[in-house]
Amino acid sequence: MAKENKDYSKYFDFSGAKVISEDESGRTIRLNGRDIHIVSEPDYRQEKQRGKEQIQVHYEDAVPEHLRNLGTGKKYLIYTYGCQMNEHDTEVMRGLFEEMGYAATEERTEADVILLNTCAIRENAEDKVFGELGHLKTLKTEKPELILGVCGCMSQEASVVNRIMQKHAFVDLIFGTHNIHRLPHLLQESHFGKEMVVEVWSKEGDIIENLPKKREGLRAWVNIMYGCDKFCTYCIVPYTRGKERSRLPEDVIAEVRELARQGFKEITLLGQNVNAYGKDFTDRNYRFGDLMDDIRKIDIPRVRFTTSHPRDFDDHLIEVLAKGGNLVEHIHLPVQSGSSEVLKRMSRKYNREQFLELVRKIRAAIPNAVLTTDIIVGFPGETEEQFEETLSLVREAKFASAFTFIYSPREGTPAADMADDVPYEAKQKRLLRLNELIAELSLESNMELAGEEVEVLVEGESKTKAGVLSGRTRSNKLIHFEGPKELIGEFVKVRVTTPQTWYIRAEAIVGETAAEAAV
């Protein structure tokens, strides 16, 4: 029998709502006592489409002159959920806010605008956001002029936007991942109107360069591409982030050079699948390995990247990473499962043997490579034997650590229509066994450094013990050691004394920072 297709249009069937107006700028409806101006709305079918239209690159200022004083005397607060891409989006929004004259605050009672930058990758991420909205409702009641907005990946889901419109009428603004650059205009509309504004682009837009960013700390995120075309059956990202489109290499390299001039010690190149960088170029043959080779020549101490897909991890990239220098030896390589059958149902486009061959190639070229991964347990149809295959692959690959998750269906993905037939209790037991193995391997990996001297980029002081500093090695291992806070922001040589499961205790090599040792 043919499978019935879901009718996602039902999410925006507001037949009970009163239409106030409708024109080229959208339509305004009255729903549950609130006027809602719908400029554009999420649509699952449009989000899945991958057209061949040319992506344009724009370099105009995102904040027009007449909006540069919109936030004078006002304060903003952004809560960020999810991945590094969301963190980077928040940096952009901070930059936009401050070009409009807003000042940052950490006190919600002081804020004139509060945005929740959301994640849709797992169900509990959504639960946290709706829980936070519940807390903010009281503040909105006490401070009606507060502008409260929801943006990010959750906003790209039609069912989520529907839920906010129906049950959280106190929200003022909803926008997605493709139109962050429109924030100044959306805030203007929210400031001067009393309607909830919904502007979510279902189709990805062009690439907008020159967006301001407010970065903090020693490390910087650099987005090199947007979107994902892999369509793993469990993943909502291709719908929320759109099709793959790469920034021009000259723009990426210029940004990295500027960060080097500003004194940043470490950068992380970001993309939903960085290995696919350049595949969409039609005017040049330039891929991720070429970009890494060019960035390797820039005077910035450490360069990382995330996240990579095993299917696109080619030999040229391995060859470039093996050159070392500022390219660190930590590689995050999500496997998701160790069973070829499960990988096929996940539509990962590689099997167990191909993944292990990739691991073999990486370790042959980069003997000191430290590999970490992502793993999902309890995917629909996963048998006990298939889970055992995951455990054996983890042992063989010798992952130093892993992000591990129990499968939860995401509405709109193919896996959501599969029978979620692994009992939750079985999922929990499998996760426990997997985490025990990961802990064992993590300790083994850390023990290899016993007595060794390593370089640490000091990030800050311990929150629980005075006089203890923490930082990370090139291979991303967490180090704790005693030292003065003046070392924060410096590279310091330390000697490993006590490897633990999830972190390493060390002692500073007295009298020299890493920079001084190199002289």
Structure description:
The chain is α/β, with parallel strands linked by helices. The chain contains 14 helices and 24 strands. The strands form 6 sheets. It has a 9-stranded mixed sheet, sandwiched between helices. Strands 20-21-22-24-23 form a 5-stranded mixed barrel. Strands 12-15-16 form a 3-stranded parallel sheet, sandwiched between helices. Strand 5, helix 2 and strand 6 form a beta-alpha-beta unit. It starts with 17 loop residues before the first strand and ends with a helix.
Mean pLDDT over all positions = 92
Overall helicity? 25-40%
Radius of gyration computed on alpha carbons: 24 Å
**Main sheet strand line-up:** 1-2-3-10-9-8-7-5-6
List the total number of helices. Answer: 14
How would you sum up the major sheet?
A: 9 strands, mixed
Low-confidence stretches: 1-9
Q: How does the helix and strand content classify structurally?
A: alpha/beta
Shape descriptor reads globular
Q: What proportion strand?
A: 15-25%
How far apart the termini lie comes to 74 Å
| DSSP summary, beta strand count | 24
